């Protein structure tokens, strides 16, 4: 059973998972050290946000390992929809940087800068790594050009989702729990400020993804 599980993951994927796990552990360790030092639970929400950031990455690993041209289109769409539902939670952590300097418990600001920056970096990497894997899945089914168009569309939709999460306080599971209210709030958000933020976030995420994509492609060429 272990051999079958191991065979579905290449050494490179194992290395990526391990490195992201180490980075996440670093963030959690810093957060716990802060809790002990301040004797408060301030910033413990970082652990929950990191957990949510891991969800789309794990889904993308499953999708990449299982999705093949002969696979049912319904199953591929189901995995893709589930991944897209949770994907915004990963880059969302970047917006947690707004909390830098907001603490009133005497923690050195440079500590919080490192803690929140490390958390944001981890969330962003988890999101972009999952996007890279889903991009590869999309290329198998819809071709290179359509896959790139899908990437841009995903980043735009996710950027708007980040706005809904940060400013309107909606969660991914509200799609199932309160779909009507969520749709109404999303429609009301179609005005200048949210759209400007969406464009800005989309541009940032796309530029960041191009860097990750380029490094991944360069690594593949070096390996060859």
Strand and helix layout:
Layout lengths: L1 H6 L3 H28 L6 H22 L6 H14 L2 H4 L16 H34 L1 H24 L6 H4 L1 H10 L3 H32 L1
Helix pairs in contact: 2-6, 3-4, 3-6, 6-7, 6-10, 7-10
What key phrases describe this protein's structure?
224 residues, mainly alpha, 10 helices, 0% strand, disordered N terminus
What does this structure look like?
By secondary structure, the protein is mainly alpha-helical. The chain contains 10 helices and no strands. Helix 3 packs antiparallel against helix 4 and helix 6 runs antiparallel to helix 7. The N terminus is likely disordered.
State the low-pLDDT regions, or none.
Answer: 1-8
Instruction: State the shape.
Output: globular
Q: Span from first to last CA?
A: 30 Å
Overall pLDDT score: 84
In short:
By secondary structure, the chain is mostly helical. The chain has helices at residues 2-7, 11-38, 45-66, 73-86, 89-92, 109-142, 144-167, 174-177, 179-188, 192-223. It is globular.
């Amino acid at each position: 059973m272990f051999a079958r599980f191991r065979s579905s993951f290449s050494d490179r994927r194992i290395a990526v998972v391990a490195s992201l796990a180490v980075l996440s552990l670093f963030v959690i360790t810093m957060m716990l050290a802060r809790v002990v030092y301040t004797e408060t639970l301030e910033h413990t929400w970082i652990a929950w946000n990191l957990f949510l950031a891991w969800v789309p990455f794990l889904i993308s690993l499953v999708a990449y390992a299982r999705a093949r041209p002969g696979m049912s289109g319904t199953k591929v769409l189901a995995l893709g929809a589930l991944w897209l539902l949770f994907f915004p939670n990963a880059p969302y952590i970047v917006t947690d940087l707004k909390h830098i300097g907001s603490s009133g418990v005497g923690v050195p600001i440079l500590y919080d800068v490192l803690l929140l920056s490390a958390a944001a970096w981890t969330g962003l990497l988890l999101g972009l790594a999952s996007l890279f894997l889903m991009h590869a899945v999309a290329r198998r089914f819809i071709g290179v050009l359509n896959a790139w168009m899908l990437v841009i569309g995903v980043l735009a939709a996710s950027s708007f989702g980040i706005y809904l999460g940060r400013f309107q306080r909606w969660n991914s599971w509200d799609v199932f729990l309160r779909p009507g209210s969520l749709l109404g709030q999303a429609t009301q958000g179609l005005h200048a400020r949210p759209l400007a933020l969406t464009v800005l976030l989309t541009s940032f995420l796309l530029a960041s993804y191009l860097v990750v994509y380029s490094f991944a492609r360069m690594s593949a060429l070096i390996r060859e």
